[in-house]
Amino acid sequence: xxxxxxxxxxxxxxxxxxxxxxxxxxxxxxxxxxxxxxxxxxxxxxxxxxxxxxxxxxxxxxxxxxxxxxxxxxxxxxxxxxxxxxxxxxxxxxxxxxxxxxxxxxxxxxxxxxxxxxxxxxxxxxxxxxxxxxxxxxxxxxxxxxxxxxxxxxxxxxxxxxxxxxxxxxxxxxxxxxxxxxxxxxxxxxxxxxxxxxxxxxxxxxxxxxxxxxxxxxxxxxxxxxxxxxxxxxxxxxxxxxxxxxxxxxxxxxxxxxxxxxxxxxxxxxxxxxxxxxxxxxxxxxxxxxxxxxxxxxxxxxxxxxxxxxxxxxxxxxxxxxxxxxxxxxxxxxxxxxxxxxxxxxxxxxxxxxxxxxxxxxxxxxxxxxxxxxxxxxxxxxxxxxxxxxxxxxxxxxxxxxxxxxxxxxxxxxxxxxxxxxxxxxxxxxxxxxxxxxxxxxxxxxxxxxxxxxxxxxxxxxxxxxxxxxxxxxxxxxxxxxxxxxxxxxxxxxxxxxxxxx
Amino acid sequence: xxxxxxxxxxxxxxxxxxxxxxxxxxxxxxxxxxxxxxxxxxxxxxxxxxxxxxxxxxxxxxxxxxxxxxxxxxxxxxxxxxxxxxxxxxxxxxxxxxxxxxxxxxxxxxxxxxxxxxxxxxxxxxxxxxxxxxxxxxxxxxxxxxxxxxxxxxxxxxxxxxxxxxxxxxxxxxxxxxxxxxxxxxxxxxxxxxxxxxxxxxxxxxxxxxxxxxxxxxxxxxxxxxxxxxxxxxxxxxxxxxxxxxxxxxxxxxxxxxxxxxxxxxxxxxxxxxxxxxxxxxxxxxxxxxxxxxxxxxxxxxxxxxxxxxxxxxxxxxxxxxxxxxxxxxxx
Lengths: 502, 332
What we know:
The complex is a heterodimer. By secondary structure, chain A is α/β, with parallel strands linked by helices.
């Protein structure tokens, strides 16, 4: 019998041509809470999905109680006693509490008939043993997030799981709900359950975890005992890289204030955001996925108007209620998901670029083709789009070139304030550098740029100033000179008591 | 973890709204009954009620299968053509072998339907073609096969043996057999959806496919299965159709798929999957059948019938959307 209940050795995983896990190892003891820590994109979620059989590894081995195993699908992993609570809750909202707990494993009589009475009584017993009081016949749709989570936990228990994986279970819980969850985790640990715990809140990790494994960019960094490690050491392990000068932001003397945001609030999503953005400046917005950065950008652009606070554009106070209005004020927003919000993938390059300014090429409702084409061509050339022709369908372009088309599209509106949401996500290194150079040129021309990025090197290299958000609050604002990776990570992971903001 | 229930008032209203849809159909049925029987008292006689039931029996059988498909967030537009093809093949078979056993005929029809459904299931579950497109394609293919198979001829009543005609209208149990078929189908589907794991998994797949996969439900198998079931139901319906109308024509059940979808949706089945009950669908089919019957009795233009059906579908779908929106608002 092995010392470990679960061992992963040199797991690799590729999606398409991209390797996202490079030989990651992990060893889990029975009766421990083992935290996995890493930045956005470090490979935590992929690793979890390999353990639970959602993804199959391309290399490496998995040992369960010392035996070599292979999980072809989630069912096999569940039957082996591995249960997971995913970040995105996986309930069927149209089914009731009891059915969700026993989803796919409903108790049946000898004849194979579902035993509803047993289903309800077992569900009730399970919830009671977890200290949850809920009517098991309530539809999942009518539950609060915390209640939904307790159902997922009950589901894990219905299988007598020996290994429980919790992917950011506290991200939508209140502090007291989280404290109760930790109590439950400690109880399970004392009963011998091994728990893999993922959280971005370092404080929580010190509160509940026994050991911690750090991942970075899909590689294994180290495993430490939590009691022997400090917060700063962990941050250094997560970051652990030196910044090369990949990011050529030219020095620009900032001009007048282009955008000023004061006390911007959307109740329940973000609160009291304050910053100003000058012409020629790039303001980086750092933070973890889900910190509310995109919501702030969407509020400024009028997609989802804020519930409080003020916005000033070029010195004038404005109330932006629609993207059309934002565009007419000189704003442009390049969203994070190119495929979803940025491009009409079935249309060609020309049509995509001229989409926001079609009005300019229309005479009495008819498009003036020639003018449209030449304007699109110029914008595409400025952005160095690489394509066979201007008629190439956007879907067939590479990710980097798609991003350039999106940029060209917004530049054709001649914006004075440009909001970029993850401008280089998912594009290769060479194109990345090109996009960075373009951003730098645009800033030099006097455009004010607000850049949301989850990649620390990009934030540090490209930004004149850096605003850090965590769970809807501003937790830091650093100048280029004072910003370091450690400071940013620290601000992006700190837990804030309600009411305390910067 | 102690978790408190959210304020009860909010969701009592919602629960009422959700239940309102089945309740709502009953109300509409009652109002319709009163209005029509004022103008045509014959509407409220047992004989007329039996006629309505006979009229909707085939609809019930296929609408129940359509419901199973819609529960997975799919749709089967090919059922009308499948009915036509099976009816034609069965009619030709009986014409050639007048002494064939009726049990064999029914089984043959269901087997033929299963084959057609299997083809749909393969395209959708393995070929990953969106159901509406896949079955729109087979709608055309199966209807085309009716013409190819029959060479454009039809099977008139005198070419079919009396025993076969009695399959639908015979009354050994006091009511026409065709009603018995529908009742048995309803009981089977009710049991299947509520008392088997596969049945519950169908709801799970329609409600949240990712969640279903995470707990180890084999989604593609479920999706494949529902189209086979729809094929089997269409096969049975094809046999009953040929027996009831004592003939088989190239346009048999043309456009019938839309009525099955209508009965499901009016019966409260959500087009986005995961929601729907057998009693609801039975009421939906009954309502459509009553409108059909009333239009004839009250002697208003049959054009009104289609308009009324269309209006009912819109009411059902809009209330579906409103309820969904209401729940989402409650959550945020």
